[in-house]
Amino acid sequence: MKIFIKTYGCQMNLRDSEATAGELNKLGHEIVYDENEADVFIFNTCSVREKAELKAVGKIGILKKLKKKKPNLIIGIMGCMAQNKGEELLKELPHVNFVVGTGQLHKVPELITNIIEERDKKRKQNIAKGLDESFGVGFDEASEEILQNAKNGERRMPRADIQEVLLENDEDVLESLNSHFDDTNSAISAFVAVTRGCNRFCSYCIVPYVRGREISRTIEDVVNEVTELTVNGIKEVMLLGQNVAAFGLKGDTKAPAPENSPFADLLTELCKIDKLKRIRFVSPYPSYFNEKLINVLAKEEKICHNIHLPFQSGSDRVLKAMNRQYTAEQYKNIIDKIKTAVPDVTFSTDIIVGFPGETDEDFAKTREVFNYVGFDNAYIFKYSPREGTKAAELTDLMVSEEVKEERNQILLNDLTKITEQNNADLCGSVVEILVEGASKRNSERWSGRTSTNKVVIFPPTDGVDVGDIVNVKIDKSSSMSLFGKVVF
Ligand code: SAH
Ligand code: SF4
Ligand code: F3S
User: Fold this and answer.
1) How does pLDDT run across 7-62, given as a tens digit for each residue?
2) Alpha carbon of 13 to ligand 3 centroid (Å)
3) From atom 1 of ligand 3, which residue's Cα is the shortest distance away?
4) 308: pLDDT confidence band, cut at 50, 70 and 90?
5) Distance, CA 114 to ligand 1 centroid (Å)?
6) Mean pLDDT for all residues in the chain
7) If you count Cβ atoms within 10 Å of the first and of the last residue's Cβ in the chain, which end, N or C, has fewer?
8) How far is the CA of 54 from the centre of ligand 1 (A)?
9) What's the order of all strands across the beta sheet hosting 278-282?
10) Domain 184-304 and domain 430-487 have a common topology
11) How is the chain split into domains, by residue range?
12) Which ligand is nearest to the CA of 102?
C-alpha cells in the first residue's frame, strides 16, 4: 500500500508519525508524499488549540469526495485529537476507517492489515452473492429487498465501510515505537522520545488528558537507540518529552532535590557515545533545572547551548491560575543560573497571551520578563479554551480576540528587535556550526546551525560536507539568520 501521513502538532507527534512510518515500511508499505498516489491516508492529529483540531477536521472532510471516487481508500486518524474526540469523529467524518488514540499508536500497522483483509473477505462475500464487489463492505447482512435492489443496480444503501476505534491506554506504546524512518537519506539529526505523557495539569492544557500519565524509558534503552542511530550516520539527537526533564522521576511533579536529576544522568550517558556530536531537548519545565542538571549543561560540550524554557506568563497571579509551579522571579533566577554556567547560552520559550483574566498589568509583566531574558525565539499562543480543562470553566474571564491579537503582535515585535540585535552582535565573530546541507530552494545556499540554534547561511565550500562541524566567519545578519563564509 502507498501511505500518506499528515502530521499536526508538536515534535512528539512528528516523532510518532516517523515511528509509525518506520513500522509500516518494515511491513512492505511505501510512504508517499504525493496525496494523489495514496491508498491510505493517516492523519496524526493535535488538540492543543482549537485551530489545530479545525485544520485536521477540515482536511479530512475534503477527502469524502475523493473516497466516493476511490472507495478502496483507507482513511485513519491517530494522535491527540483521536484520543480527545474518539468515536464522535466517526459521526462527523463517516468516511473515516479508524480512530486510534495515543496509547494505541503501535497498533496502526496491524489495523491497516486487518482492514485490508476484512475488506477482501467482504468483497468475496459480495461477489458470491452476485453483488457489486464493493457493495456495503461493512455490512454482514442486508435485507432481501435491498439485496434485490442492489442487484438491479439501485443503491439505496450507503456503501458502509469497516470502522475501528482504539482508545484504551497501553504502556507498551513506549517501547514499541522505536523505529526510525529516514525520508531524506541524508539526515544527520533525529528525534528520540524519552518520556511520554504529562502529569503536570497546567490549567489550560489538554495534553495530560490526551497523552495520559507520564512514563519514562530506561537510560539503557535510550542509549541503545541513540547508539544505533549514530551508526547510521546521525550526529545530533533531539530528546523529546512533554515534560522531558522529569525523565526518570516516576511522574512525581514536585521539584526534585538539588542532587536528584535522572535526566542529567541520561544526558551524561548519551554524551559518552563517541559518534554523537550534539544533544538538544524539548520541552523542559523550569522546576527541574536544579544544581545537578545545570552542572551537567555546563560541563558536557555535546549538550547544545540553547534551552527551550516555556514560561507562559510573567505575572505571578496568572502563573498561579495556570497551575505553573514557579513565580516570575524564580523563572528569572533559573535563567540567570544557566547564563552564569553557560555564558553563550540562548533561550527560546512558549508564551500564552489572553489567559482568562489576564489584565494589561499582567501582560506588562510578561513583556518585562520577555525582554529581560532576550529570547532568541518564542512561540506565542493566543489562549484557546479546551473543554475538560480547569481554565475553560473561567467563562466570565475570557479575554477578547482583539486583545489577544494585540498582545501577540506586541510580543512578536519585541522578539524581532531582540533577535535582530542578538544576531547583529555576532557579526565579525567566528561560530562553529553543524552543516545541514543545501537549502531546498537554492543549492547555492548551504546552511548549518550553531550549538545556540542559530541558522547560518554560507556558500557551498570545497571539502565541506553534510554532518561536518566547521567554523564560519559571520559578515551579515538578519532577525532570522546569520550569513558568512567557512574559515579553516
Ligand atoms: N509540554 C510543553 C508544552 C506542550 S504544549 C511544556 O510544558 O513546555 C506547547 C505550548 O502550547 C505550551 O507551552 C503552551 O504555551 C501552549 N498551549 C497549551 N495549551 C494551550 C491553550 N489551551 N491555548 C493556547 N496555548 C496553549
Ligand atoms: Fe501541558 Fe503543562 Fe504538561 Fe506542558 S507541562 S504538556 S503545558 S500540562
Ligand atoms: Fe498537540 Fe498532542 Fe503535541 S495535543 S502539541 S500533538 S502532544
Assistant:
1) 999 999 999 999 999 999 999 999 999 999 999 999 999 999 999 999 999 999 99
2) 6
3) 46
4) very high
5) 36
6) 92
7) C
8) 17
9) 189-193, 236-240, 278-282
10) no
11) 2-166, 184-304, 333-425, 430-487
12) 3
